[in-house]
Structures are given as C-alpha cells and as structure tokens.
TrEMBL record:
The modification 4-aspartylphosphate is found at residue 77. Keywords: Phosphoprotein. It comes from the Bacteria. It comes from Metallumcola ferriviriculae. Residues 23-143 form the Response regulatory domain. Pfam families: Response_reg (PF00072). The keyword Phosphoprotein applies. This is Stage 0 sporulation protein A homolog. One of its GO terms (biological process) is phosphorelay signal transduction system. May play the central regulatory role in sporulation. It may be an element of the effector pathway responsible for the activation of sporulation genes in response to nutritional stress. Spo0A may act in concert with spo0H (a sigma factor) to control the expression of some genes that are critical to the sporulation process.
Length: 143
C-alpha cells in the first residue's frame, strides 16, 4: 500500500473562508478518499497528513508527537482490509497519548463502534459518504 504525506495548506483565498485550524491525520485504505478528504480539509484551513493503514498512522502520530508538532485530530476509517483498522488503531494511539482526539469514519452504520464510538475511545464520528459541512461540524465539536 502506498502512503503519502500531504502538508500543503489552503491557498490565501481559501484561507479567508476557512473555519478550521490545526493538524489532522487521515487514515483510510482508499487512496481516492484520502485525496478528496485531504483537499476538503485543506480547503477549510487544516494541515493534513495521510496514511493508508493503522500501522503507518501510529508511526506518524508518534513522530509528530516527538517532533513537538502533534496532530489535533485523527480521522480513522473503521475497516482496513489486511491492516489495522480504526478500532485497533485507537487502542494503540491511546497508549501513546491518553488525550488523543480521534474521529471514526465508516460506511458500515450497523457496526457497534459506530453506535457507541465513545466507548471505544473516539471523540466523534462521521458516516460515509459525508459532506464538507458534516466533517467541518464534527471537527469543530471534537477540537
């Protein structure tokens, strides 16, 4: 699987309309979804780093914390075929940082994690597919 780090922030014109500020780690196995979500988040003012699975997310989270550039929020796909998904990854991130702010994302609305996300250590949830307004609102609530 391919990982990419996208750190560009929104252009000056987009920043004028932004509602968010901070660093977000996005974890999803779908490359196109990572790219679209990254662009949405940059558009509303966030700096974004992407990972394709839980293992890479944990590594990036630890590196950011050690470099004193922690992530404000982690948005995690619940299911990653062949890798650590959101449910497993949040457990590891909580060991690194008990105050991690994580949002679970999934298209599987009948999963128990989606129904009781807070019991698993998540601070918010967003069901796929979601709009830029929906993700912006969840981020405001979590941050």
């Amino acid at each position: 699987m391919e990982n990419e780090i996208i750190t560009d922030t929104a252009s000056t014109a987009e920043k004028a309309n932004s509602t968010g500020k901070g660093r977000i780690l996005v974890m999803d196995d779908d490359k196109m979804l990572r790219q679209v979500l990254s662009e949405m988040l940059k558009y509303i003012g966030y700096e974004v780093v992407c990972a394709c699975d839980g293992e890479k997310s944990i590594e990036l989270y630890q590196e950011a914390k050690m470099m004193n550039k922690p992530f404000d929020v982690v948005i995690m796909d619940l299911t990653i075929p062949g890798g650590l998904g959101g449910k497993e990854t949040i457990k590891e991130l909580l060991k690194i940082d008990a105050n991690v702010k994580a949002i679970v994302s999934s298209g599987y609305s009948n999963d128990p994690v989606m129904a009781h996300y807070d019991k698993y250590g998540f601070k918010g949830l967003v069901a796929k597919p979601f709009s830029i307004e929906e993700i912006a609102q969840v981020l405001i609530e979590v941050i």
